[in-house]
Design a protein that fits this description.
- The complex is a heterodimer of chains A (317) and B (243).
- Chain A has 317 residues and is α+β, with helices and mostly antiparallel strands.
- Helix content of chain A is 16%, strand content 29%.
- Chain A has four helices and 20 strands.
- In chain A, helix 1 packs parallel to helix 4.
- The radius of gyration of chain A is 20 Å and the shape is elongated.
- Chain A starts with a strand and ends with a helix.
- Chain B contains five helices and 14 strands.
- Chain B is α+β, with helices and mostly antiparallel strands and 243 residues long.
Amino acid sequence: MQEQKLFQVTKPGVLTSFQDLGRTGYQQYGVPVSGAMDQVALQIANILTGNPRGTACLEVTLIGPELVVTSPTPITAAITGASLEPKRNSKPLPMWQSVRLYPGDRLTFGRHQAGVRAYIAVAGGFQAPEYFQSKSTDVKSGFGRPLEKGQSITGFPINAKPGIGLTSAERPVYNKSITVSVIEGPHTGAFTQEGLDRFYNTIHIVDANSNRMGYKLISKPITQKDGVSIWSDAVPFGGIQVPKNGAPIILMADRQTTGGYPRIGTVMTADLPKLAQLVPKGEIRFQPIPVEAAQEHTRQLETYLHNLETFYQNGIC
Amino acid sequence: MDYDIQPIGDTGVKVTFKGEVAPSLNRTIRQFCSSLKKADIPGVVEWVPAYDSVTVYYEPHRIRFKEISKKMEDVHDKASDKEEMASRLLQVPVVYGGKYGPDLERVAMQNGLSPDDVVEIHAGEPYLVYMLGFLPGFPYLGGLDKRVATPRLDEPRGRTPAGSVGIASEQTGVYPMESPGGWNIIGQTPIRLFDPDRAHPFLFRAGDRIQFQPVTEEKFEVLKHQAANGELDLGIADDGETD
């Protein structure tokens, strides 16, 4: 594989960054995991272009970038995730399937329709700085930067077959009002019964001031018992921490490795994509789930992605 | 049982050790981690030691909660309290006060001490690294003398330089990189705590002890220059466990 030009960034979009499945193995040294917010959409984009599932993609947020194809030869790409009206030379570009882009093509995004984050994969993968075996951008830790105007994006294009796609029934639907399942703990005992009741029985609104680190929720105060203090511990993707003010924060991809606020529970892995795609001001309801049942969902998701990968590997090659 | 096992979502398990957070509990945690490493459990991705717990992340399609909980019991049973846990003593040079420690005078004043008293107390005894977090390579240190404890700043600073040594309530720590922050900054070390391009990117690990060494501004600048050129010998010593 030879490194060559892929795109020139004519507009960077509001937040476009390289993301893969994150930087695991270094959390004990305080290195955040980071990675794609919607890891299912990222993996499907890769599968459709014939890449290994964890290959770095461009994560596009709400207002997409404008990219001009600078590669000397056609490239195969796929866009998944949020519907942000992708266009090639002003004509709608289908999502959830591999497409061929030609030298000089102009890739743009239009109005926001559903979801928050779209993923652009190119067959062969992007070139991006790698830190601790990951290309995920994590500005706070000093790992990479979001796209900038004028930047040249390179990669290792391979000639994969276009037209590989999901049927419309297989494509995820991103709602503005979602219910997510929560594995309780580890600090359930720190909350009052009233706090727990409010958490599970009322609607929470995602504050507009939410980002890749965490979603702030507007809720009836999730009250804690008096005098409870906890020791800082490791915090997972989807962990729901509640500071003293009673307003929960769901920890997302760019969370710190550890935290010192009591956590009421953790969103199950299979529900993280719909959370990642929930628009600001969107509504969340929480329901408890036993860990065993949550793991059944995670296993089914893994089986689905594995089968999809196997199916298309046979189709592409 | 002297520990609890809880699920952390569907991809984590937290082992919480009972007892007071102290060097002896930290030693138990490090012995557990050593046993965990030896166990080499398929499906385990990584683990994060903290003040009174270890959280182990795993892949639920390879191992389920019930099985990993059982494995944690085995790991705990096999952890030996006889095992010598090497605890390194690291000398960390710090220039206190002036432009390097803009909050030193206020920390002194708020505690009814002179700036020299604060330096003497802060650099007096070694600190134990209980855990790393907040930023890559940031050590949570235990053992700050209550006489210099100072509440966080009301308004966090937009920019705290890399190497800044700070106090927040009864904690002290060192910023591995430039970052916004609400800690009272009393000095700065020229040593780079975190450098992704270095063979050993992280200076500290959980269980280390850190001894701050007051240095002059001149010495600081020399050391900083050496550190930037990779010429600084960090003098990392293995001195065995001294709990």
